[in-house]
Amino acid sequence: MSDFIKLDFIKKSEKEILKNSEEFYNLMNSRRTVREFSPEKIDIKIIENAVKTAGTAPSGAHKQPWRYVIVESPEIKHEIRIAAEKEEKENYESRFPESWKKDLESFGTDWHKEFLDTAPYLIVVFKVNYEKTESELRKHYYVNESIGISVGMLLTALHFSGLVTLTHTPNPMKFLQKILNRPDNETPYLLIPVGFPAENVSVPVLKRKELDEYCIKL
User: Fold this and answer.
1) Which residue among 85, 168, 184, 205 is least enclosed by CB atoms within 10 Å?
2) C-beta separation of 178 from 127 below 8 A
3) Are 25 and 187 in contact (CB under 8 A)?
4) Of 68, 31, 28, which Cα lies nearest the Cα of 48?
5) Cis amide prior to 172 (ω within 30 degrees)
6) Burial of 62 (0-12, 13-18, 19+ CB in 10 A)
7) Residues in a beta bridge with 138
8) Is the pLDDT of residue 101 over 90?
9) Mean pLDDT taken over the chain
10) For the segment 4-51, what is each residue's pLDDT rounded down to a tens digit?
11) Domains in the chain, ordered, with CATH?
12) CA 186 – CA 128 distance, rounded (Å)
C-alpha cells in the first residue's frame, strides 16, 4: 500500500471560483485549430512545461501510459511529412468514404501537409500499452481514457501558454513508430504541430454547440 500525505488544497470563495471558471472558459473558447504555422523558433522549455502538465493527468492505476516525443529536427520533421502525405494521399484518393470527404470540405484540407515541415515543433504522442521489464510484462489499465485526458491537458496548456496547435491523425500511423524508433509496446496516438500561427492566417467560420445541446442537468 502506498504512503499517503495530506492534500495541498486551499479553498477559495465561491465568487473567486466562479470568476476563475468564467475567465478560463473565455480563454479556452478562443482556442482554434490552425493548419498554417510560422517557422518562428520557440524556447523548448515552453513545450516541455506543457508536456509536464500533460504528465499530471490522472491515469488508470497511476500507470501513466503515455510517451511524448518532441521533434525539432528539420530532417526528422520532413521524413514524417513524406510518410504522412503518402498515407493521406491514399486516404483522400481511395480510403475515405464520400461522406467523410464531404464533411471535410468546409475545412479546405487535402493530403498536402506543409505544416509538418513549417511548425517549429511536432509533438508525437504514443500510448504505452504495457510496461516491459527484464523479467515480465506489466499491464496498463484504461490506456485510451488516460491518454485522452493527458492530451486534452497538453492542448490546454499549449493554448494557455500562447501557442496554436493542430491535432493531426494520419491513418495508419505505424510509420511514426518506425521513424522515431519506438518499441513494440508503444502505439502512435496523435501528431501535434505546435507554434505561432502564420501571419494573417484565417480559420473556418464554425459555431460551437450551445451548452444545453450537450449538457444535461438533472
Assistant:
1) 205
2) no
3) no
4) 68
5) yes
6) exposed
7) 131
8) no
9) 94
10) 999 999 999 999 999 999 999 999 999 999 999 999 999 999 999 999
11) 35-194 (3.40.109.10)
12) 5
Amino acid at 204: P
SS3 for 41?
A: coil
Which of 1-10, 80-89, 182-191 bottoms out in mean pLDDT, i.e. has the lowest?
A: 1-10
> Which H or E element spans position 21?
helix 14-29
Q: pLDDT by residue (tens digit) across 145-159?
A: 999 999 999 999 999
Q: How many other CB atoms are there within 10 angstroms of residue 17's CB atom?
A: 11
Among residues 41, 201, 44, the alpha carbon closest in space to that of 120 is found at 41
CA distance 116 to 76: 10
Identify the residue whose cell numbers are 492505476. 61
Grid cell listed for 41:
523558433
Nearest-angstrom CA–CA distance, 93 and 53: 38
Does position 73 have pLDDT exceeding 70, yes or no? yes
Q: How many CB atoms lie within 10 A of CB 71?
A: 22
User: Using CA atoms, how far apart are residues 32 and 10, in angstroms rounded to an integer?
Assistant: 32
Instruction: Give the span between the Cα atoms of 52 and 97, in whole angstroms.
Output: 38
Where is 161: in which H helix or E strand? Answer: helix 143-161
The amino acid at 14 = E
Q: Which residue has the cell 501558454?
A: 161
- Is the pLDDT at 66 greater than 70? The verdict is yes
- Count CA atoms closer than 13 A to 49's CA, side-chain side: 13
Query: In angstroms, how far is CA 145 from the centroid of its own chain?
Result: 14
- Written as one letter, the residue type at 40 is E
